[in-house]
Write a structure and sequence with these properties.
This protein is mostly beta strands. The chain has one domain. Helix content is about 10%, strand content about 45%. It has a 15-stranded antiparallel β-sheet that branches. The two termini are about 15 Å apart.
Length: about 200
């Protein structure tokens, strides 16, 4: 199982390919006036035929067909993986609460975005793999990138965390902790799973 350091070294060595070759998806690309904006329907094609597409959405409308729901235990809430392009922060994975917005943590507070992209897989098996001691699970899916170009992954707070099932993001820039938001606050979890695609 690769460590965070192994992935960082591999990403540096692969330069333009980034660490996407290690997990079988296309790296994030695209720009909008020099920002780190993402394309309308950016897709990654894994060797096994799994296609990951990010579909433009907004205003809390129902998720696009094919988006995968995740239930939050004990709350009755159903969330979807979304991401937001922020010029200074990068492309940040968060959680879509249908009928409302895409919520994410900027490290200081919970932020809502009315324009976002929703993860829609095709011919993929998505799962949540444990990120034991900060190591990424096999087939971890790159869902965004920080302002410095580092990969970000969608994470889900584990069963021993304060808010099990909440979605956030994790990467080198989060100190390998799951950074998520709830009720206006920015929170971190050390027990979490990372979204994988196979």
């Amino acid at each position: 199982m690769p460590t965070w350091r192994d992935l960082l070294l591999a990403a540096t060595a692969l330069s333009l390919a980034g660490c996407a070759d290690l997990i079988g998806v296309e790296p994030l690309a695209g720009s909008d006036g020099g920002s780190s904006a993402i394309s309308d329907a950016e897709a990654g094609l894994a060797e096994d035929g799994c296609v990951i597409t990010w579909v433009d959405s907004g205003g809390g409308v129902p998720p696009p067909s094919g988006a995968v729901p995740y239930s939050v235990a004990g709350s009755g809430a159903v969330l979807y993986v979304c991401r937001v392009s922020i010029p200074t922060l990068g492309v940040i994975p968060g959680k879509l609460l249908p009928g409302w917005a895409c919520y994410y943590s900027n490290g200081q507070m919970e932020v809502t975005a009315s324009n976002y992209e929703v993860l829609v897989p095709d011919r993929c098996t998505l799962a949540w793999g444990p990120a034991a001691l900060g190591d990424l699970p096999v087939d971890a899916l790159v869902c965004g990138e920080d302002g410095d170009g580092g990969s970000l992954y969608s994470c889900r707070v584990g069963t021993t965390g304060a808010n099990p099932g909440e979605l956030g993001h994790v990467g080198w820039s989060t100190g390998h902790e799951c950074l998520y938001s709830l009720d206006g606050a920015s929170l971190v979890a050390t027990d979490f799973d990372v979204l994988t695609a196979d």
